[in-house]
Design goal:
single chain, mainly alpha, elongated
């Protein structure tokens, strides 16, 4: 079960790396604007904020990926703690997104589903 949870956590991390790229690198491109539903003008005005927010997503992804590497190296307690902290923060960010703007349900679900599944499976693995 732990392996399944780590795969889900890794997928969540990869999704957050992709979000980082969209927000911090590609924010003003048509692709990112279409993804986030912003106009050229809105993207230009919010570029600095998106750049910063993208790095939050990257840092969460790095936290989870480092945790996975640490688990694989044999330090389960430390590694799983990092994975849990990272995926719980990803899930928390998704909850903040949906509670701050109900029209962002789809984005919040996309952002939060994999971390939630990883946490549930880790919980099951812990009690099994």
């Amino acid at each position: 079960m732990t392996v399944v949870a780590l795969v889900l956590a890794a997928l969540a991390a990869l999704l957050h790396v992709y979000i980082f790229v969209l927000e911090s690198v590609l924010w003003t491109t048509a692709r990112a604007r279409n993804t986030f539903g912003t106009s050229e003008q809105e993207a230009a005005v919010t570029k600095q904020l998106a750049y910063n927010q993208g790095f939050y997503n990257l840092f969460l992804a790095v936290l989870v990926l480092v945790g996975i590497v640490v688990v694989v190296s044999g330090a389960n307690a430390v590694g799983l703690t990092l994975v849990i902290a990272g995926t719980a923060s990803m899930l928390g960010a998704a909850l903040v997104l949906v509670t701050s703007d109900a029209t962002k349900r789809r984005a919040a679900t996309t952002q939060g589903a994999l971390p939630l599944l990883a946490l549930v499976v880790l919980g099951i693995a812990a009690i099994a």
